[in-house]
Design a protein that fits this description.
Number of strands: 21
CATH class: Mainly Beta
Radius of gyration: 19 Å
Order of helices and strands: HEEEEEEEEEEEEEEEEEEHEEE
Helix content: under 10%
Shape: globular
Distance between the termini: 23 Å
Low-confidence stretches: 1-21
CATH topology: Tachylectin-2, Chain A
């Protein structure tokens, strides 16, 4: 009898996960952690100015957070150089942070602005991390790979002839023989790859802003997309004409990853707290990390381009 009860409980958990992947209204059950922010700027080093826009992955039962940290050594209006730091947590909230960043600006196209806004996907034991390299005038979508989350091999810009490119979110399985990446920071585009290194982008957007809505000015991928039984779930960030950033979601067809099946009309996460309304970029919640641990989904987001926060949903 005990085994039967455990089996039904396990099946109920699986069903909840499937429902999350299909019914987008489930996302409104995310609740901001009551003691946000969970990571704040500190000291006089790489995290002195801000720490924000985190991505996340589960390894050996722990959550590893890769986040953008920023100091005061930049140039021009922004006045900050970004690096990518690493933290480790058993509960997803309290993190032990590495004393040194794991990805730093070492190449010409990464200086003077730095390495920004990571997004991570694990495929066959290898971690694929996309990030934005910013030289003070041009942003380029770049990639780095690792097997241990500490030592990273930089691949370089994924679209070196495109000019401006950002924000790559990679699905962890192939569709029709290709890996898929959603990217872009105005409209969202799609790119395909056989080897996760060489990418070919389609010139046509797969998701665009909608007049009069929370995403009326821009849409930008959030965490790595998730394959569900009903389609590909992509959580994305959207901005309106007041420059307020909120978080929405869309489901693409798993047979044709350019085809939108469902899309939220209202954001499920938006700036409401003081630390989301006030900072170096006011009125911003910006999600880039999503993991599941101990019967909870945890969504990690940047607040006002200054802090790291979490939103949690049980299942």
């Amino acid at each position: 009898m005990k085994k039967l009860v455990l089996l039904f409980a396990f099946l109920a958990i699986l069903d909840s996960v499937v429902v999350l992947g299909f019914d987008l209204t489930q996302l409104y059950n995310f609740r901001k952690y009551s003691k946000n922010p969970i990571i704040l700027p500190y000291g006089t080093g790489p995290m002195a100015k801000a720490v924000f826009n985190p991505t996340a992955v589960v390894k050996d039962g722990k959550i590893y957070l890769l986040y953008r940290e920023e100091d005061w050594t930049g140039v021009k209006r922004w006045n900050g150089t970004s690096r990518i730091g690493l933290g480790e947590s058993s509960d997803g909230i309290h993190f032990h942070l590495n004393s040194t960043p794991v990805i730093t600006p070492t190449l010409p196209y990464e200086k003077l602005g730095g390495c920004e806004d990571p997004r991570i996907t694990k495929i066959k034991g290898t971690y694929y991390l996309t990030y934005t390299a910013y030289n003070g005038s041009t942003a380029q979508l770049c990639e780095a790979i690792s097997t241990d989350l500490i030592h990273w091999k930089k691949i370089g810009p994924l679209f070196p002839n495109a000019g401006w490119s950002k924000s790559g979110a990679i699905l962890n399985e192939k569709i029709n023989g290709n890996y898929v990446m959603y990217f872009g920071d105005s409209s969202i585009y799609i790119a395909y790859s056989k080897d996760l290194i060489h990418w070919k982008a389609s010139p046509y957007p797969v998701l665009t802003p909608r007049p009069g809505m929370f995403d009326s000015v821009l849409v930008e991928p959030g965490p790595a997309p998730i394959m569900t039984d009903k389609g590909i779930l992509l959580i994305y960030n959207g901005a309106d004409y007041s420059h307020k950033y909120s978080v929405g979601a869309v489901i693409f067809s798993k047979d044709d990853p350019t085809q939108v099946l469902y899309r939220l009309d209202k954001p499920f996460l938006q700036p409401t707290k003081s630390w989301e309304k006030y900072g170096q970029t006011p009125n911003v919640v910006f999600a880039e990390g999503l993991v599941t641990l101990k019967n909870e989904w945890i969504l990690y987001y940047g607040a006002a381009d200054t802090y790291v926060c979490a939103a949690i949903m049980s299942y």
